[in-house]
Amino acid sequence: MAADIYDWIAQLKSNQWVLDVGSGEGSFPGAEFSCRWLALDDDPAAFTTTVRYNRVTGRGHQLPVADGSIDLLICHHALEHLAPLDQTLAEMARVLKPGGQCYISVPNGHGLCDAVYRLVFLGGGHVNRFRKDEVVSLVEQRLNLRLAEWHKLYSSFVYLRKLMELLETPPPKLPRRLLAISWLPQSCVGFVQRTLYVGTRFLDRWLRTDLAVYGWAFFFEKPSGQPVVEQPGYVNVCLHCGTGQPAAGAPRTRWWSCRCPNCSLTYPYTRPFRSTR
Predict the structure, then answer these.
(1) What confidence tens digit (pLDDT) does each residue in 55-86 have?
(2) pTM of the prediction?
(3) What Cα–Cα distance (Å) separates residue 181 from each residue in 118, 170, 178?
(4) pLDDT for residue 1 is more than 70
(5) Could you tell me which of 153, 150, 149, 115 has the C-alpha nearest to residue 236?
(6) In-domain check, residue 116
């Protein structure tokens, strides 16, 4: 089985299609691929950079794609935003080829990270809340696939840093909650983010909780009879850009910090524990 989504993408041939639903600028901009790629988002302003994708503006419940034309369907941190959910899943089932693959990542709608996000951003556009078993069952039933692999997604609470960037030039009619936060020094918000990052990982290691887990990544294929495999998740996730990396390859700057391969900034290093790497 494939180790991660990059392996799945790399295995596709030049005549095969990826559909990236709710793509924004592209769910995996660093992926190497020779296949054809269609990025779909309902906001034309999301397509701001020059990339190798074909792009189309559209909605998840009305996909402008032919029946049975997609070999790999990607919905990366998007399904929680897409409504109506039943119609969106029906559309995904319609466009996916028989024997096609599907990658879906979603937040734990009942976890600490999503709770803080909803508190700060007044919901933040999350219209669907998922539990792990619920989302797996939904996708298996509606897309006629079976879960092959999955792994946990660890948070760096990076949305708090994005909040600081937002508050540098606050938009008009800022909600009261954000207006109150905007009076705080940026260093306070940064301190909260770092404390959540380090504290949740410490508790997860010693109390076997999942407070630092943002959500899950799921890999669905046609039924094969093989057991479902849990892959280790990246516990080291950049505070500045949200990029995860394996601990074994994380460039160390000190014994307690490492450097992000994406933005080159440093953040606290965490040794792997349980199902992490």
Answers:
(1) 888 999 999 999 999 999 999 999 999 999 99
(2) 0.91
(3) 15, 11, 5
(4) no
(5) 153
(6) no
